[in-house]
Amino acid sequence: MPLRDKGIRIKSSRKGKSNRSVSDIVKDLKKANTPLNDYRDRSIAIHGLICAKCGKEFDHKSRHLLTVHHKDGNHNNNPQDGSNWENLCVYCHEDEHSRERLGDYLRGK
Ligand SMILES: [Zn+2]
Ligand SMILES: [Zn+2]
Fold first, then answer.
1. Contact present, 64 and 56 (Cβ < 8 Å)
2. What is the number of domains present in the chain?
3. Which of 89, 21, 78 is nearest to 49 (CA)?
4. How much distance in Å is there from the Cα of 40 to the middle of ligand 2?
5. CA 36 – ligand 1 centroid, Å
């Protein structure tokens, strides 16, 4: 009977679900290799320990006062060449985000 054959084919094709979980594992591995906090160090390495707005310079002791601003506002957009980053001191950064909540930023989110 042709109907039986159809039923078997559908069942076997459903077993292909395992492919999805493999890609999920690969995603997790990629995340582990590029920690989210890494972009701050990278941005400082590219742009230097200086506020892009007021020009205030920082050293390694005060570097926590220098924060990374995302030019397009998307925290997940982190190109490795630093084109979406701007190093701003906390004051200038607060000014830049005066309409938004900066709390998440300062908490390191
Ligand atoms: Zn500044
Ligand atoms: Zn910002």
1. no
2. 1
3. 89
4. 12
5. 23
For the record, the structure tokens of 29 come out as 């591995």
> 75 CA distance to ligand 2 centroid (A)?
9
Tens digit of pLDDT at every position of the chain (109 positions)? 555 565 555 554 555 455 678 777 677 666 655 555 689 999 999 999 999 999 999 999 999 999 999 999 999 999 999 999 999 999 999 999 886 655 566 666 5
Alpha carbon of 107 to ligand 1 centroid (Å): 19
- What's the domain range around 61? 2-106
Q: What is the pLDDT of residue 100?
A: 63
CA of 45 to the centre of ligand 2 (A): 18
Kindly report the pTM of this predicted structure: 0.58
